[in-house]
Amino acid sequence: MKITEIRFGMIRVPLKTPFKTALRTVDTVEDIVVSVHTDTGHVGYGEAAATAVITGDTHGSIIEAIRRYIAPRLVGQEIADLNRITQLIQTALEKNTSAKAAVEIAIYDLWGQLYGAPLYQMLGGGDPVITTDITISVDYIDKMVSDSLSAVDRGFESLKIKVGKDIGVDIERVKAIYAAVEGRALLRLDANQGWTAKQAVFAIRQLEDAGVRLELVEQPVKARDLDGMKYVTERVNTPIMADESVFGPTEVIELIRMRAADIINIKLMKTGGISNAIRIADIAALYGIECMIGCMIETSISVAAAVHVAVAKANVITKVDLDGPSLCAFNPVDGGVIFNESEISVTDAPGLGIREIRGLELLPG
Ligand SMILES: C[C@H](N)C(=O)N[C@H](CCC(=O)O)C(=O)O
Ligand SMILES: [Mg+2]
Question: Where is the Mandelate racemase/muconate lactonizing enzyme C-terminal domain (predicted)?
Fold first, then answer.
């Protein structure tokens, strides 16, 4: 099975409600979809999210990275030579992790199709059902409480509460939500870099002292402030998770050596795809560090790949934040992973199992 061509499309899916974090507000998924074509007629699919405020990737940069730097290296390559292909992708250019992720996802999809096996089995197998949390956007306190209660009514047992806007209101937001859902759902906080290290310690200690039990706090301080991450991690009892601070395996090694966080959030759009996500999970397992697998604002195309990784690496990926498809107003994919609110299941269809993507707007190659 040889690669013959890489094509592009744009997928647009409105969100059920605007997604609001300390970094941005977004109301529609607008992602680049790649399809990798082969001489056998098999097609692999991938998706890149243009999360400029986190990865630096834009629609234009994703298309340019793939068209000019990645695709020319891949045409003619055998899908069976997976390691050679992933290396060609990762070394084609610096950064551009979402572009690399989209192409890698499509290649792994084809790799599974080549051997007639679902991707999670190719990656080592596992229990085919996982459970995700759902994000509660940062907003007025009453709105966040009612969004949290609706999520619990929909069966979500883990809520990822966005904070990082205003330290005083953030503390009140979390106290109000905790009081409303106590005993029915676990709370994870994500400040998306919105606090200083001292503010984070103050807020988390206030919540701990008030008896608010938090499963973890994600990325309290600026991405580059690893000393700040360490400062917070050392001073609170609640586990601290690194998200924007770590993209690839070398950053994870540095973070672990510094003891700057307790947990690592792996996202395919940060790692550049599946090969580095697996490397990070393996490094974390060696050090006994737990991981979450997360997503950006993505549809069930790329999130499907993250699900397969989560299933196969459940020994170390103990927390799942793959709610992108649940936030979407509809699922543009026919086939693939089954997203049913908090419950996500892989099927035994080869690769990612995607049969068709509806509403894809083709872009010039
Ligand atoms: C969608 C997911 N639950 C999430 O919260 N991801 C964010 C970043 C998403 C974005 O801004 O596109 C995160 O974990 O920081
Ligand atoms: Mg985060």
Answer: 141-239
Pocket test for ligand 1, best of 53, 156, 190, 245 (most atoms within 8 A of CB): 190
Note the pLDDT of residue 364: 87
Q: Is the interface score ipTM higher than 0.85?
A: yes
Mean model confidence pLDDT for the chain: 98
Q: Has 162 been annotated as catalytic?
A: yes
DSSP string, 39-101: TTS-EEEEEE---TTTT---HHHHHHIIIIIIHHHHTT-BTT-HHHHHHHHHTSSSS-HHHHH
Residues 222 and 193 sit within 8 Å (Cβ to Cβ) = yes
The 10s digit of each residue's pLDDT in 207-258 is: 999 999 999 999 999 999 999 999 999 999 999 999 999 999 999 999 999 9
Strand partners, 131: 343
Rounded to whole angstroms, how far apart are CA atoms 278 and 167?
35
Distance 275 CA to ligand 2 centre (A): 21
Query: In Å, what is the CA distance from 320 to each residue of 92, 147, 298, 324?
Result: 30, 20, 15, 11
Mutate to test the pocket of ligand 1, among 58, 134, 295, 300 (most ligand atoms within 8 A of CB): 295
Is pTM beyond 0.95 here?
yes
